[in-house]
Amino acid sequence: MSTGSRSADVPVRGKRADALRNQQALVAAAAAVFVTSGVDAPIREIAARAGVGIGTIYRHFPTRADLVVAVYRHQVEACAEAGAALLAEAGSPFAALRRWVDLFVEFLVTKHGLAKALQSDDSGFESLHAYFLDRLVPVCARLLDAAVDAGEIEPGTRAYELMRGVGNLCVGHESNPDYDPNRLVELLLRGLRRPQSS
To answer: Is 107 a residue whose pLDDT tops 90?
Structure first.
């Protein structure tokens, strides 16, 4: 009897893994489409990018709001998880901070594309801002602390302040596609650097 249970579990686990992979592929495709076409893009465009049928999207995400929330959470998690990895592999804590801020800018450009949907009355969106802060502020703080400890930046910059400043510099991109927030963010980061002694 136990042997039968184990053999019955194998395809279920495989099916769950496949479903998770499909869901992640859909979220990634939706994120890319939202950036280029907005959150009101046709579902068929997302399905085509993901290489699946429209029915597959609706099985995973019955409403557009479900898909928007999933995209937002997916991007927050990717940005949060990148912090430790960048500290481990970058040449210095400041280099890690700079690369993380680049990812954060990329996320914010997408988030501003989702802003209209996120400001709706849909109850699914209520907790997203708190989730965003809870996940990302500690990551930014860790990167800042590491750069301070390494003597690369002056102490005193709070993570929330830096993230808010970067966010404000990203706002112009939504109304003007020629506006490049990365250039201004680079100037902001330069201002954090501790002057190098000669």
So the answer is: no
Instruction: Tell me the C-alpha distance between 40 and 16, whole Å.
Output: 29
Q: Tell me how crowded residue 150 is: count the other CB atoms within 10 A of its CB.
A: 12
* pLDDT band, very low/low/confident/very high, at 116 (cuts 50, 70, 90): low
Find all residues with CB under 8 Å of 41, minimum gap 6, and list them. Answer: 33, 34
Alpha carbon distance 65, 55 (integer Å): 16
Give me the percent of the chain exceeding a pLDDT of 90.
44
Name the phi and psi angles at 25, rounded to 5: -65, -40
- Residue type, position 159, single letter: A
Given the structure tokens 């970058």, which residue do they identify? 90
Could you say which DSSP state residue 194 is in?
P
Work out the pLDDT band at 75, boundaries 50, 70, 90.
Answer: confident
Kindly report the backbone phi and psi dihedral angles of residue 193, in degrees, each rounded to the nearest multiple of 5, phi listed first. -65, 140
For residue 28, which of 73, 95, 89, 58 has the smallest C-alpha distance?
A: 73
Q: How much is the pTM?
A: 0.77
What span, in angstroms and rounded, lies between the C-alpha atoms of 50 and 26? Answer: 6
d(CA 171, CA 158): 21
Tell me the C-alpha to C-alpha distance, in Å, between residue 34 and each of 27, 53, 66, 114, 139: 10, 18, 14, 7, 25
Tokens 């501790």, residue located: 194
